[in-house]
Amino acid sequence: MIRRRAYSEILADHLASHRQMAFVSGSRQVGKTTLCRELGSTYLDWDNEDHREVILAGAGAVARYAGLERLSERPVILVFDELHKYRRWRLFLKGFFDTYEDRIRVIVTGSSRLDVYRRGGDSLMGRYFPFRMHPFSVAEVTTTAIPSDPIRSPPAQISDGDWQALMAHGGYPEPFVQRSARFTTRWRALRRTQLLREDIRDLTRIQELDQLDILEKLLAERSGQQIVYSSLAKTVRVSENTVRAWVTTLCSLHHGFLIRPWFANVTRALRKEPKWYLRDWSGIADPGRRFETLCACHLLKAVEGWTDLGFGTFELRYIRDKQGREVDFVVVGDGKPWFLVEVKVADEALSPALEHFQKQTGGEHAFQLVENASYVKVDAFSRRKPVVVPARTFLSQLL
Q1: Which helix (H) or strand (E) holds 10?
Q2: pLDDT tens across 8-51, in order?
Q3: Helices then strands (H, E): number in the chain?
Q4: DSSP code per residue over 239-293
Q5: Quick check: 272 and 262 in contact, CB under 8 A?
Q6: Residue 113 burial (CB count, 10 A)
Q7: Cβ(223)–Cβ(256) below 8 Å
Q8: With contact defined as beta carbons under 8 Å apart, do 33 and 176 qualify?
Q9: Rounded-to-integer distance, Cα 40 and Cα 3, Å
Q10: pTM of the model
């Protein structure tokens, strides 16, 4: 079964409306190559030896390969896959784009963040827009329409089968579609091996792969928890700076992500300790941590997507003060808290921390998401005061 992606609509709209290249980044197995090949008319993969020879032959050879010398009604859509592994990729793209931009539209994909590979070359500023691709979410399962405004997406009901599949198998396309416990277990193990033994090797100079393996296992057990670098360093037996660098690398490869505390206008708020979340929640045994990680991934997808679509500059934070009061997430738009989110599996008793921190931050909305609550067809953003909301309703209004 093939599931249509919202990113197909987003990228098609970009290619039809703008001259800038589309830089599509995202984790391994998120579906970048499949989607972009469907959109493109010509495909060049740096990992393919024949394609690599074409790229190394220069911009003219690529233009001939793409058929740019032939008269065409519309620009050719050319996809470069894993091009950032080429040492001079920025300089190559700049020259190619500046020469042929009137005849071509370019998509560049990479399994890690494209900005990780800063190895010289001229700036591409003004020549591309970034698009960060995420796994399936509740909203993307229910609709592929491009939102016209981040706050106006109406709620839509996800089927019980799709909801359970997201919870059990995660949002990565293959396990989500397959819906087989055995397949998901094998897929997850292989993806982890590829990360630690291939991506890390290709991207970094890290030699201590066995110790990095231990760190990854520790982090896998701590999704949704604050990171104490000194404690991790003692366990792994490396320096604190090394642990920080390795965590940054794992984030760059989209294995996980950090969210930092929001402390502006919050009395006695914590300021330093970030929280760590995995990108794939399917392997988390604890139901509460799995659901919190699912919500974190949905919110991250929304804030990065809204930013990439030009609705503003959004970021994901959390709030905790020295009295131990905490709200799991706060979404910040253009430097101001927009809405707060507390996550619960079944508890519908409203957390007092929501009202407390909403008053201090001035956030417009405060939601307590409940996993086990039934869907209701009501706009969650129509309420200003703290409110208990079914997770299925709220998450369908994101991206």
Answers
A1: helix 6-17
A2: 999 999 999 999 999 999 998 999 999 999 999 999 999 999 99
A3: 16, 13
A4: -HHHHHHHHHHHHHTTSEEEEEE--TT-TTB--S--EEEES-GGG--SHHHHHHH
A5: no
A6: 19
A7: yes
A8: no
A9: 18
A10: 0.94
